Amino acid sequence: MNERNVVEFETVAFVNDIIGYASDYETNALYKVNVLNEECSYIRSFPNEDIGAKRLHSFAIYCNSEVYFIPMLGEYISIYNIETEKIKQIKIPKICMERDTYNHKLKFSSAIYRDGYIYILPFTYPGIVKLNTETKEINIISNWVTEDECFYRGGMCIDNDYIYIPNGRNNIVLEFNIKTEEVKLYRVGKNNNGAVCIRKWKEYFWIVPRLKGSVVCWDAKKNQVIYEINEYPNGFEFEKILFSEAVIWNDKMYLVPTSANEVLSVNADKKKLDIEKKCIKNSKEILASMFETNNDYYFVNIDNLGNIVKHYKVSKKNGNIECYGFNILNKYEMIDNYFDSSIKQNKVMLENKRFQLDDFLKLNIERR
Fold first, then answer.
1. CB neighbours of residue 269 within 10 Å
2. Interstrand relation of 326-328 and 39-44 (parallel, antiparallel or unpaired)
3. pTM score of the predicted model
4. Segment 281-291, tens digit of pLDDT
5. Which residues, in sequence order, are CB contacts of 365 under 8 Å at separation 6+?
C-alpha cells in the first residue's frame, strides 16, 4: 500500500455496515468510505471552511439521508445530503460571555440523535446545542454552565435517557437527561484529575483517567463512589496523557494507552489493574483512538512530530489486531480542488505526506 494514498478519519457516519461518510483528519475534505475493502472516494471540500484545516470535525451522525458533521475546529455544522449531494451549513452561535476555558479550535466532542433532534455535546463550548433535524433550528442549553473549566474530551456513555461525559481536566462528570434536558454536574473521585472516557460495565460506571489519577468505579444513580483504584502495576510507565480509550471485550475492560507503555485491564474482583502485554506502539509514539464500527476499533500511532505512522484496528469479536489503511481512489481530484481552493483563500501550499512536489508537477502537466 502506498502510504501517500492513505487517508485518516477521526469520525465516520455509517449509513449501513459497510458504507460511511467521513471528514478528513488532515485537511478539509469529505469522503465516501467503504470499510470492507478499505477504499474511499473524495467527494468535495466543506464550503466556508479553511481548506487546510486539520481536525475540522470531531463527530458525524447520520439520519434521514443526511450526514451531520459536528465541528471541532470548524465554524459550521455541515449537513451533507447523500441523495442531492449538497451541503447546508449552520453557523455556530457566538458565546455570550468571555470564557478563559473556551477554545474555538475545540468546540464540540460528540452528538446523539433522539426523537427528531440532534444534541451536540461540548468539548470546550459552554453549552449543549439542540438541533431540530426538520427545521434546522438550533437552541443552546447553557443554564448548567459554571465557572469550572469546560473540557469534555469525549468518551461519553449513553444509558437509556441519560448521557454521561467526563471532564478531561478535573473530576466533574456531566449528566444530561435527554427527556427533560436537565443537566447535573457531579464531582466524582478524590483522585480523579481528569478522565478520557466513562464506560458502563458490571452494573457500575467506570471513569478512566486521561491525566495521572485514579480509575473510579461509580454508582451514578446514588452518586456514590464504590471505590477508586490508585495503584498502577510495576513496569507501567507513562508521560502526561495516560489512556486514549477503554474497550470492553470478553467480559474484560481494557484501558488503551496514549503515552503509556502497556495496555491494562481492570480486575474488578481484586480492585486492581493488570498488565495485558498487548501494546501496539513503541515508547516514542502515542496511540490515538480514531473511530469505531460495529466490528472494529480503529487506532493510529503518532510520532513525536505529530505524524501518523501506523494504523491498527482491533476486532470487537476476538481482540485480533490488524493493520489497515483507507486508500483514496481519486487522489488527483482531491489535489486539484485543494490547489484551487488554496489559491482562492490565499493559502501557502506546503508539502506533506499526501501532497508532494511530484503531485504538483503531475497536476500541472495534466492541466495543460
1. 7
2. parallel
3. 0.94
4. 666 789 999 99
5. none
